[in-house]
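Narrative of accomplishments. A recurring question from our advisory board has been how the design workflow behaves on a single, concrete structure rather than in aggregate. To address it, we present the structure tokens for one chain from the evaluation set, followed by the sequence designed for it. No filtering or post-editing was applied between the two.
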């Protein structure tokens, strides 16, 4: 009979109280997609690994496969991102939004190929937040655009999303997938500055030199576009996104 034990790396997305001392964990693993597991006794002061299973931490886990929920049997910390992220409100709210997005995008394991890519993208974004490599809001916007792109919803930031006419263009439509030319402009399209389109494209591609070269005045407009875009495709507003402080 095949062993029910397996091992994987994971980011802790969320935890729920389960009884007096147990916790229900939502994990994004490297090889098994999203996993829900029980960590028994982690709320007790003498728990061997309670502090390691905090949201945003990167861990190496051994789990026992269960009928409905798996059980954590061993855990080792690979990167303790929780500490520095939770010590900074801006980083914390951005990380919470990213974790919520990752949870939504990986709920259906077989919905699309790319769970491993979503895992790697999230690890990189949490690393950037924990080490303050870039402003938290920019890391969040870049992550949201790139995670949606991996899910098959990459916005067009230059050519027209409907007819393919070469850009740059002055309108952006959340419903139609990005930039629109004058001929394809739809009701509800957003008029955007050319610098905003450049910033959107740079955040999507991870081109940080271009991100920093864009005027700060357009960041607010871009953040609003990104928020609207992710809300449209996830079909409801992310609860954590309302807590993010925007410049």
């Amino acid at each position: 009979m095949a062993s029910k034990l397996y091992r994987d790396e994971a980011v802790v997305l969320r935890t729920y109280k389960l009884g007096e001392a147990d916790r229900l964990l939502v994990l994004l693993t490297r090889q098994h997609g999203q996993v829900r597991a029980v960590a028994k006794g982690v709320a007790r002061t003498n728990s061997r690994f309670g502090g390691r299973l905090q949201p945003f931490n990167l861990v190496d886990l051994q789990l026992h496969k269960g009928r409905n929920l798996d059980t954590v049997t061993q855990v080792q910390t690979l990167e303790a991102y929780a500490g520095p992220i939770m010590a900074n409100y801006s980083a914390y709210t951005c990380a919470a939004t990213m974790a919520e997005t990752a949870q939504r995008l990986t709920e259906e394991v077989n919905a699309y190929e790319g769970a491993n890519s979503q895992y790697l993208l999230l690890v990189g974004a949490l690393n950037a937040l924990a080490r303050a490599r870039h402003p938290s809001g920019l890391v969040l916007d870049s992550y949201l655009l790139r995670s949606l792109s991996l899910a098959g919803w990459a916005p067009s930031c230059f050519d027209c999303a409907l007819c393919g006419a070469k850009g740059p263009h002055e309108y952006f439509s959340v419903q139609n997938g990005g930039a629109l030319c004058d001929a394809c402009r739809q009701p509800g399209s957003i008029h955007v500055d050319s610098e905003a389109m450049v910033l959107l494209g740079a955040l999507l591609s991870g081109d940080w030199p271009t991100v920093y070269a864009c005027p700060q005045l357009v960041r607010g407009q871009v953040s609003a576009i990104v928020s609207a875009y992710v809300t449209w495709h996830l079909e409801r507003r992310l609860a954590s996104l309302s807590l993010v402080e925007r410049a």
